[in-house]
Design goal:
There is one protein chain. By secondary structure, the protein is an alpha+beta fold. About 70% of the residues lie in helices and about 10% in strands. It has two domains: about 210 residues, Four Helix Bundle (Hemerythrin (Met), subunit A) (Up-down Bundle), CATH 1.20.120; about 150 residues, Heat Shock Protein 90. The strands form two sheets. It has a five-stranded mixed sheet with strand order 2-4-5-7-6.
Length: about 500
């Protein structure tokens, strides 16, 4: 069963128990209310009516007895009031007849019959003598009262029976009221026990079917998260969702195992490539050593002897021989320049020096000093804004500035060369621009110019080895930036490059 199904079943069970408990309590409370209302609205008025009936009959008996003794009409006032009260009492008892039951109703009829007998046998003759103005003698009065008392004693007996019946009915109703209260209390306790038991049972059920499986699943997940991927997941039994999550985690574990195997294989391959790269770097360092020592030494000898031949024997040989000597000297010099440029290109990022804070303003001063003769001969002007301080290798950054400014001076137009250098901050990097008013570069060559030994012009038109911009790109990328040609610029060439902002200067 799913978690939702378990929760729905548990909630439904608790709801049923609550409804049953509340229903039973409402039934008991209804019975209690009914008994209380019956006692207050039925038995109470009936007892008051019975008491009023008794008082009315006693008032009648007292008035008639006084009238028999004294023959005074004033004694009949209580009698007449009693007659009205008696009828009212009978009417009220009749209204409560169905409620008080047949026993009380029968007792009321007994009271009515005996009261009528007393009226007929005693009251009517006494009143008849009074209307005839025949006063009874003392002896006759006593005899009449004794007779009336005998009849009224039967009335008193029936009234006592009526009160006894009502008292019994009252006691029975009160007992029912007590029983209903006890039943209500018992049902409330039972409902509370059912609800609490249901909650406890539901809690135990949910713990057994949901919480414990989730705890076991969490333990297995923590084991996998801790790096133990080899052992399969012990999927806990429980709701469908728990089993599905366990299966997903186990599938994830299997994928991790596969990925780890792939990563380990890649790591082995990377180690092999790193070993090969170290070997290649070692060979490159050996080549650089050979190029800087073993190759340059014979090249210097060739150039030196060619220059000696050119100096000593110029004019002694024919013109073709002089031309051959010029070619040999020029080739040796260009070969030296090419070797030096290749060494500079290969040494970028391999010096082993730690980066330091470098003020680019100081770098520009150094470059301007090195290019002083070229600046003077071309009449060039360098316009510079405020340059930042960055972290890097001073020698490499100096080479970067020198190559970019040299290119601007080399490829100038007929106008006076102007080189503008500016820097702007963008987020976490500086962007530098080197702009000139020279011959410019076509957009189609924007990437080609950064490749090593790529030339757009012949050696006769412009000197150089074709390695300068490739060296610039390698230096910028080594410092964590990038360099590109701004193809939107017109009126010359514009190179832009980025360098990270040194944290110490922010």
């Amino acid at each position: 069963m799913s978690v939702g199904g378990l929760l729905a079943a548990t909630t439904g069970l608790l709801f049923v128990l609550a409804v049953v408990g509340i229903g039973l309590a409402l039934i008991a409370n209804g019975q209690l209310t009914s008994d209380r209302n019956f006692l207050l609205n039925q038995i109470g008025p009936a007892r008051r009516a019975a008491l009023n009936l008794e008082n009315a009959l006693i008032n009648q008996e007292s008035g008639v007895r006084g009238y028999v003794i004294t023959a005074e009409p004033s004694f009949l006032e209580p009698y007449r009031d009693g007659l009205r009260s008696e009828e009212d009492a009978y009417a009220e008892l009749h209204e409560q007849e169905q409620a008080v039951g047949p026993a009380v109703a029968a007792q009321v009829e007994i009271v009515r019959a005996r009261a009528q007998a007393w009226q007929r046998e005693f009251v009517a003759p006494a009143l008849a003598h009074g209307r005839q103005s025949t006063r009874l003698s003392t002896q006759q009065s006593i005899a009449a009262n004794i007779k009336g008392k005998q009849f009224f004693d039967h009335v008193r007996t029936s009234l006592a029976g009526l009160q006894s019946a009502l008292t019994h009915r009252d006691s029975t109703t009160r007992q029912q009221l007590d029983d209903a209260a006890s039943n209500l209390l018992l049902l409330l306790v039972l409902a509370a026990v059912l609800i609490l038991g249901g909650v406890l049972g539901a809690s135990l059920l949910l713990r057994r079917t949901i919480t414990r499986p989730l705890e076991r699943l969490g333990s297995e997940a923590r084991r996998v998260a801790g790096g133990e991927f080899s052992r399969p997941l012990a999927i806990a039994s429980g709701p469908r969702e728990v089993a599905e999550v366990g299966a997903e985690i186990d599938a994830m574990r299997e994928r991790i195992v596969d990925e780890l195997a792939t990563v380990q294989a890649a790591h082995v391959q990377l180690e092999e490539q790193a070993t090969e790269l170290r070997r290649s770097n070692a060979e490159l360092e050996q080549f650089a050593y050979v190029a800087s020592h073993d190759l340059q030494e014979p090249l210097r000898k060739i150039a030196s002897f060619c220059q000696a031949l050119q100096t000593r024997y110029r004019g002694q040989l024919d013109d073709r021989a002089d031309q051959y000597l010029d070619f040999a000297v020029d080739g040796a010099k260009r070969m030296q320049i090419l070797i030096n440029d290749l060494l500079a290109f290969s040494r970028v990022g391999r010096s082993g020096r730690e980066h330091e804070l470098v003020d680019l303003g100081d770098v520009l001063i150094t470059v301007q000093s090195a290019l002083a003769d070229t600046l003077q001969s071309t009449g060039a002007r360098v316009e510079v804004g405020e340059l930042p301080t960055v972290r890097g290798e001073r020698v490499q950054l100096t080479s970067l500035f020198q190559n970019l400014i040299s290119n601007a001076l080399k490829f100038h137009s007929a106008e006076q060369p102007i080189v503008r250098i500016a820097a702007t901050r963008e987020a976490e990097q500086w962007q530098l621009s080197f702009t000139d008013n020279g011959i410019g570069i076509e957009e189609e060559y924007a990437e080609r110019i950064f490749l090593i030994f790529q030339r757009l012009h012949s050696r006769e038109a412009y000197e150089g080895s074709g390695i300068g911009l490739a060296l610039c790109r390698k230096i910028v990328e080594y410092h964590g930036g990038r360099i590109w040609l701004d193809t939107d610029y017109r009126g010359g060439a514009c190179f832009r490059l980025t360098l990270p902002i040194a944290k110490e200067t922010t």
